[in-house]
Each structure stands twice: as structure tokens, then as C-alpha cells.
Amino acid sequence: MRLRLHKHILSQAMSSSSSLPSDPSKLPLKPLPGSYGLPFFGPIKDRLVYFYCQGRDKFFSTKIEKYKSTIFRTNMPPGPFISSDSRVVAVLDAISFQILFDTTKVEKRDVLDGTFMPTTAYTGGYRVCAYLDPSEPKHSLIKRFFISLLASRHETFIPLLRNTLSELFVELQDQISDKGEANFNALSDSMAFNFVFRLFCDKNPADTKIGSKGPQMFDKWLAFQLAPLVTLGFPKLFSLLEDFLLRTLPFPAFLIKSDYKKLYDAIYTSATAALDQAEGLGLKRDEACHNLLFMVGFNAYGGMKTFFPALLKWVGSAGENLHKQLADEIRTVVRDEGGVSFGALDKMTLTKSVVYEALRIEPPVPYQYGKAKEDLVVHSHDAAFQIKKGEMIFGFQPFATKDPKIFENPDEFIGDRFVGEGEKLLKYVYWSNGREIENPTAEDKQCPGKDLVVLVCRLIIVEFYLRYDTFKVEETKALLGSAINIKSLTKATTI
């Protein structure tokens, strides 16, 4: 999923100004560029170009070049017949993207997957929290449950994750010893599922009826919902056939009904403390369980499934100089602090920066959507545009977090980008459906587990460099993100 922003194209589109004027009202109001094409045929044309002719990144960069603007009209997949309306206004720079966080101006009802919504049969008949707008009463109730649940597990995070990671590293070394390389994705998926299930359900999934099959069950559940938004990577000869199969009709939920029931039953019988907590807040136990399943499977496991390999890819390919700096920092702090603790992790400034840089360059959820609640004026660095009430706004996050007006050398992974003065740039890191410098509340759509994700990623880096001096990776494409093979591990020479 590595992105290559065409910086010269973006520079042409954004004029010569290097920063936003102090008074955005002085920006010229321009008509929105772009076109949706003919009804029915326009969305299909854009879809084919997006998936099979240009590819995702070139699709956007070509339009930026054509319209000389990072804000424009376009269609977004899946289009007919799954989506009744594919029209969006794209906002593709760090300034305009922020409108998607303002839930007083944009509605987040049923837009998690963009211009379509999978049937609620995938979620037990409920519109779970991720599909609710903050104006809906159930949203704040369910999100308060998530926030309080995470707070109650705070002391469990580090010891549970370190234990789970120890199991991963044993398997990693065994694979390298036996085969000369290790499939990190498969090991990472298993580790991520075991961690989140143990964290929220207080039980090892191996002791439930799902056994070791949890990751595969969740993978199928995710794939059936997200199929209209992906390409399988078949040869171009089969492009039209794939497009017809994936985007003519949504996959029916009954195909994964049995797996979903097993996952639901495992959570319902294991997460008794969490569900008691939900009932205490006023949620029905059944509804709370379906929401917890979605958070565990879609938000937590799904995000970790794509991001953990990305994190290892960027760090692994950064080279031995960064590896040495990380090892020195981590081992020094752990020695001085007497172990791995929240306080120790907070003192690892380079480790924190590396995680933020990976989240910036390859955010786990690249798309954001919202529908204008009123007539709006949205501005980029050098112009303003009016968006009408009811229009869908779309943001492609990796372009916003690679805005060359904000980040120097935005396509490069720079491990210490957010060290020292660089910390000021964290307000432009948007991976969590909000700014990194902000904390989620029950009234917004920012990920309630934002801080947990950052903590988990830091701990992965810490545990790696407590064991190894350096490692080498090889990347190939995967359905979601990157497939990573660990080619070699050099054991730590100092402690």
C-alpha cells in the first residue's frame, strides 16, 4: 500500500503560497472543479479507472493535476448497483481534510464504508456505533461504554501485550530457523486477535469454541463487507469479470452467519464483566455484545491486521542506522527505569516518533466520509469552495498526511520527524479520525482506542529491539495493505 504522491503535481495545484493565510476569509471563492459524468455511466467509468486503469493513487493525483486543485468533484466506488449515489467532493490536503472532524458541520450517519453501507445482518441487526452520528442518542452511550471499558483495562495493557508478543517472537524465530524466513502477517494476525480477545473478554480464545480460528473467521467477515471496495489483483484480462462479481450485488450475510454466531457466542459467554459494565450504563446486553464484537473485529483486529505489517515494513526498510538508534534508546531507558512501564515508554522519544511517522505515511484507515449538514465553505491552502447541504465529502487520508505544504519530503519515512520541534506537526497526523493531539470523547467520531493503538505499536518496537539489533524485511502486495516476510533477525549484542 505504499503511496507515492506526485509532489510536483501537488505544488502546481496549491499555488506558490507556503502557508495558510491568517484570515481564511480572504481566500478567493472559486467554483468547485470536477465532474460526475453521465448518470450511471460516469460512476462506472470512474470505478474502472480507479481500480484497473490508473490505480488508487494515480486516480487522485491525475485529477489534482487536471483541475489544479486538491478539492474537486468525483465519483467514488462502489457505484452502481451497490451504491445509489457515488458523487463526492474530494478534500485531499491537510487543511481541507479537517472539515471531516467537525461533526457540527458534517453528518457521520452510515458513512463508515463511504457511499454504501453493508446490511445490518452483518452486525446482528443493529446499526453499531461506527455507523451512528454523534447526534444520535445511542452513539454517546455506546462510546462511553468503550471509553470506560478501555479505562478499566488500563493496567492490563502492558503485561498482557508483552506476554502475547513473547509468543509471537518464539514462533517468528522458529519459522526463520526452519524456513529461512517468517510470514509476519499470519503471526501478527494471530497475536492481534489473541491480544484483543484476552483484553476485552478476559479469556484465551483457545479456551472457547472458536479455538485458533478467530482470525480466519474475522477475515471472512471483514472481506464480505468490504469486497466492493477492493480489487483482488487478478490479471487485467479478468478485470471486468472481477468488477462484475464484486460490485454488482453485495455479498449476502448468510454466507458467514455460522462464523459470526460462533464469534458472538464466544464473546457473549467470555466478556461477562464488560457486558455487565455495558448494562450498568443502560445498554441492552445483546446490543452491547454486537457492538463489542464490531469493535474487537473491525476496529481493533482489522486495524492491527493492516497496520502492524506496515509498521514493520517501514521500520525494517529504514536501515541499520535507525535500528541502532532505536536499540540504544530503548535499552538505555529500560535499564534506567528498571523495566518496561508507561513511564519508560513515554521517555522513548524516537520510538514514539517512529510510530507516529508510520501512522502518518500509511494510516490504517485511508478513507473518511461525511455529509454536509449545511451549506459550507471549505478552504485549501490557497482557495475556498462552497459545498452544498447534503453533499458527500470524501477525504483520502494518505494525501492529507503527505501534504507537501506541511511535511518536508512527505513521501519519505523519516524516523525522527516528530522529535523535538517536530512534535508541533502532530496536529496534522490524522490516522484516528481526528488529530493526534486530541483525545476522543463520547461526542465525536475519533477512535476510542487511539492511545491503545499507539501504545501497542510502541511496545512492538520496544520488544523487537530488546531482542534484536536489526532485521530485514521483504514486502509483497496483500488484499489489505502489505504482506511482510521477515528475512533475517540479528540477535541483540547488548542488553
UniProtKB/TrEMBL annotation:
Entry-linked InterPro entries: Cyt_P450, Cyt_P450_E_grp-IV, Cyt_P450_sf
Protein name: Allene oxide synthase
Organism: Quillaja saponaria (Soap bark tree)
An example Gene Ontology molecular-function term: oxidoreductase activity, acting on paired donors, with incorporation or reduction of molecular oxygen
Cofactor: heme
Alphabetized Pfam families for the sequence: p450 (PF00067)
Highest taxon in the source lineage: Eukaryota
CDD domains: CYP74
Heme recorded as keyword: yes
Biological-process GO terms, alphabetical: fatty acid metabolic process; sterol metabolic process
Binding of heme, residues: 447
Keywords noted in UniProt: Heme, Iron, Lyase, Metal-binding
UniProt similarity note: Belongs to the cytochrome P450 family.
Matching SUPFAM superfamilies: Cytochrome P450 (SSF48264)
